Amino acid sequence: MMFTPDIVLTATINGLMTGAVYALIALGLTLVYGVLHIINFAHGATLTAAMFGVLVLNQALGIDPYLAILVLTPLFFALGYAVQRLVIGPASHGEDVNILLVTLGLAIIIENALLAIFRSDTRSVDTPYGFSVIEVGNLFLSTPRVIAFFGSIAVAVALWLVLARTDTGKAIRAVAKEKTGAALVGIDVRHVYAVTFGLGAACVAIAACLLMPTFYVNPRVGGAFVLVAFTIVVLGGMGSIAGALVGGLFIGVVESLSGLYLGESLGQIGIFLIFILVLLFRPTGLFGAKA
Amino acid sequence: MLSVRDLVSGYGGVPVLRGISLDVGPGEVVAVLGANGVGKTTLNATISGLVRATAGEIVFDGERIDGLAAPQIVRRGLVHVPEGRKIFPNLSVRENLELGSYTRAKPNRARNLERVFETFPRLRERAAQFAGTLSGGEQQMLAIGRGLMGEPKLLILDEPSLGLSPLLVDELFRLIAEIAKGGLAVMLVEQNVVQSLELADRAYVLENGAVTMSGAARDLAANPELEKAYLGM
Predict the structure, then answer these.
(1) B70, A184: Cβ pair inside 8 Å?
(2) Of A12, A148, A232, A269, which sees the most CB atoms within 10 A?
């Protein structure tokens, strides 16, 4: 099958725009994995909850999805912090397996609570700019998706700066590899765990706000995103911020191009093909540390 | 400065320390000697809050600190440079040192960093390198440098000479002597008896989780019982 260069270019750019949001979701997942060494199974449910948060703020209070960032980011940071400090931490008794099960339990509770409140209907947010486009040369790009792209990149860069430059960021990286050493320089390890969890939740809250102008929400929507995000985390290297960003953009393009060539419904085949290839040939991921 | 009274501590209900008492005065260098497995590391871990004491008390700077968590104890100026260094391998040498002033002496960070680099010139050369790529001796210097960054009142050094070549051990003891000259109290927990006693003002000998000998370092060095106690003969 042959397509004109314009169509392929459009598909690639669309893939990059979707991929940036994937990357943002993967960032939260990889950060929590890198520091707490667990897969947060509640990550998808958190995303779903944040997307419903955008919906409710919009329909009940008329708050624009982008303005909702200012409300939902601190709220989800606080929720993530509290859940780690008050539920996951105490329930884990220091065992990673327990944390895994606790996050799985939280995911089930959150999803079913949303199902009970909102039913299984699919809903979306109406915005005046939902269908507006930006013309670049002879390409038409969806304005909210361009915003989502730059928003996601900005968050990734901000997160990287926090980790690289601030004492809190250095403490997070220190705890990731050396808990005892961290405690002995005066770092409160439980606080750092909770902050990390909070940052992970804040990442999906921002992703939800960037997604809602062009996407829909139902109580199961987060699962699909997190499955892709998990692929990105493995592709980029577990715990690698740069890997999550590059991996996210790459997976977005793969999905878009395989959708173009194989048909929309088969777009995800490419993603999981890559997932299998990475596991076979480079299990530490593109940016992962050698075992 | 530090006063430990009848301290009992251990892991999972099994006591390792069975009633230890010792003191470190201001500006004093005190050696705690003993063979492998007599409880030296447990003693340090209990003092610095990594392990909970089951009985006895620890008083630092006039305040009871047993029962406090490790970060709270660091904040009070008792800094423990652990056995095995526990540096942050994924952070640069400079970042490791910066985190040494995470809770203490943060406003003096730049000045203290310069001081540590003066004491350990090798660390300045390797400032931008990942700490995990340093040699064992350099990692030990980094661990001590990180401890100094918080301007401690008392520095506990746990087996600083472990795994280092004799040449490096000489160098390390020379540096510790230099640091102690600045008036900082040091508790040096070591297997290396001869060099520790040369450096210390006073010393305690641990056997089986209890203090069996103590006194001025010079007297202990001359005491034939020491060798016997130490070698378990």
Answers:
(1) yes
(2) A232
